[in-house]
Amino acid sequence: MQKKNISLDEAKKIIGENVAPIQRTEILKIKDLIKFNVFADRVLTTDVISSINVPPFDKSAMDGYAVKFEDTQNSSLENPVELKLSGSVFAGQTQTGKNKTTLKEIKSGECIYVTTGSILPINANAVVKIEDTKRDGNNVKIFKSPKLLENIGKEGEDIQKGNVLLRKGEILTPAKIGVLAALGVKETEVYSIPKVAIIGTGNEIIDIDKNLTPGKIYDINSYALAAVIKKAGCIPVRPKIAKDKEEILQKQLEEALQYDAVVISGGSSVGEKDLLSKVVESNGKILFHGVNIKPGKPTLFGNVNGKPVFGMPGNPASCLMNAYVFLLPALRKMAHISFERKIVKAKMSEKLRSNSDRHLFVTVKLENGYAKVVYKTSGAITSMSGADGFIEIPITKQVIEKDEGVEVNLF
Amino acid sequence: MQKKNISLDEAKKIIGENVAPIQRTEILKIKDLIKFNVFADRVLTTDVISSINVPPFDKSAMDGYAVKFEDTQNSSLENPVELKLSGSVFAGQTQTGKNKTTLKEIKSGECIYVTTGSILPINANAVVKIEDTKRDGNNVKIFKSPKLLENIGKEGEDIQKGNVLLRKGEILTPAKIGVLAALGVKETEVYSIPKVAIIGTGNEIIDIDKNLTPGKIYDINSYALAAVIKKAGCIPVRPKIAKDKEEILQKQLEEALQYDAVVISGGSSVGEKDLLSKVVESNGKILFHGVNIKPGKPTLFGNVNGKPVFGMPGNPASCLMNAYVFLLPALRKMAHISFERKIVKAKMSEKLRSNSDRHLFVTVKLENGYAKVVYKTSGAITSMSGADGFIEIPITKQVIEKDEGVEVNLF
């Protein structure tokens, strides 16, 4: 049943119940992930289990000398133990001969020079930092007794083979990308990024590449919506502007339904030309039409072929405010990315009366801890562009006093 | 003069003094800006001044009837004024005849049907919402007296020609992109996105597309660094891994210097093979080498040909932690984007001893308001990947008690 003029909370609830994380997946190359033009926030569809130990061998964590711990007890600056330098292993160096790994071996009374990351010689069980030694020809003076296993990175110390390292649903942060690289993972399965079609309606709307003729205005909403869709971690897909004709909107909607969600701006007011509700209704279901908020009252939300359809008001400030209130959290959910509003506390710079029986969103600018109203009209994009965020005034509240504490939702 | 083992604050100060917002600019097409694979955070190099009024004409803000305000005084449900319907203007409709705009005109006692966004007929000075009217053939009953200019969007109400709307240095948010669209701006000048070259050093390091042979480990740092560079709003450029040889590192650095900054991981520890400081010094200037922090002590920062060069430790956790502490804020500054750490308060889940005379960064996971240590070793990428953020323990503090309040810097 189509609901009319519902409360903000009910609208949020209905959207929440009718928007689901998308299940389409794709294979992502780790090398692509760090390209600048590939979206950063990708979400794993499966756990990542380590196929190797990291480090894959015992290694030196320092530049210095690998020793047998037993040989170096009671070393001190005054009474250094002296060991025979029997060789060196540099980081990355091990393979000697064809397909054969020969590890150097320490005998009692000997040490081997190692660098940070070197594979550890056989029998070595400590590394003495170079700063605590002095080389004298083929001998090395040890000025400090290492602890057992000191300065050694044990095989598997970071990651053990078979461990679950990353889990389904986790976002690939820099550190998690690092984990994939550590394992030599070349590609991994991630959820596809939701694609969101944008339709701007209105015979008066023209795209920015056209010349402005009398009675026409430039399409603001498609650009602002596309930017919000990107902010949500989704891909904006932009079909042409739909003229106010049922057949045209019908055709645009059909095309748009190949994507994961559809956002339509304009055409949802009550009046002779309310095409949007007609078209959504004849193709699917309107879940609500009209929310008791200001701006944004004529908002429509429906479901066509299992795809959420957001009908935003045509007024630019209403449309963009609605995009922050309804669309952004919904798209984050579709993209498997958690959503949290960034809120800062401020004081109201002037007395503010609600004068409305609707839940109000008022855009404000932050100045020295004060929230200053920048809202003009719902038709004005500058009601939004000069603002840092918005405050909410619930229906039950009539007045915010000067200096009263408010919470500002940052854009 | 090269500084050694300086404090965290001094290191931050030196970096701050030697990293500047880049001045290279480029022309950005607004249509490109909303493409999914184009970076969102672009910064204006100049003020944007409006060349038009928005709306460009007086328009109706509602579906309803445009009237002469004077004709409709004292209308009520009981005593409606009745007006003659003399025509209609739909949104987008005005041009009649060749290159000629004919606006409809209201005479006394008449009204004209208008839709939201319609250009206002001549002489109209109010619009009555359709809900407050009833049409009866060619007559319209007006049930409510409008106020003067009610439901009219005046020309220039949103934006006035000649106004400075956006300012140099502002980031193009969705609303500001909307402003550019409102003006029909097709392209604008923005600062170029800083390109940051990454060099991974170490003979033991191999890229993820290679097979792991004994003594080798996969390159973790280049991937984690690239992800942080993207997070900073910059473009990672990834040259090959440099072997530990002066000529090779020299060549890699030369190539890297065509970009705006260089990040090198590994090769900055003290020891026989400390090539990085040698190479940086012979090409430019080391500004510091060694910071009194843990992890991340061997960090190096220099300047070569006017480009900042960050020498990160080779240990993955040290490298990535340093990237968050030093690199991310520096790159944001280069990209003209403000940087603010996201901090949440938590309680320490266990007693934590510093045992160090260095400023400590300890990675933690947040669980029910508690910060739980996940830090293992500076060599372990899992010291970072399982963490939500990090806490800092200054040199002057030795112990954090269980349940003590801490501030967690979120990644």
What would your notes on this structure say?
- The structure is a homodimer of 411-residue chains.
- With 411 residues, the first copy, chain A, is of the alpha/beta class.
- In chain A, a hairpin with a 2-residue loop joins strand 25 and strand 26.
- Chain A has four domains: 162 residues, MoaB/Mog-like domain (Molybdenum Cofactor Biosythetic Enzyme, Chain A), CATH 3.40.980; 64 residues, Molybdopterin biosynthesis moea protein, domain 2, CATH 3.90.105.10; 95 residues, Molybdopterin biosynthesis moeA protein, domain 3; 68 residues, Beta-clip, CATH 2.40.340.10.
- Chain A is elongated, with a radius of gyration of 32 Å.
- Chain A is built from eight helices and 29 strands.
- The longest helix of chain A has 19 residues.
- The model of chain A has no long low-confidence stretch (mean pLDDT 92).
- In chain A, the strands form eight sheets. Chain A has a seven-stranded mixed sheet with strand order 1-19-21-22-18-14-17, with helices on both faces.
- At the A-B interface, helix 2, helix 3, strand 16, helix 4 and helix 7 of A face helix 2, helix 3, strand 16, helix 4 and helix 7 of B.
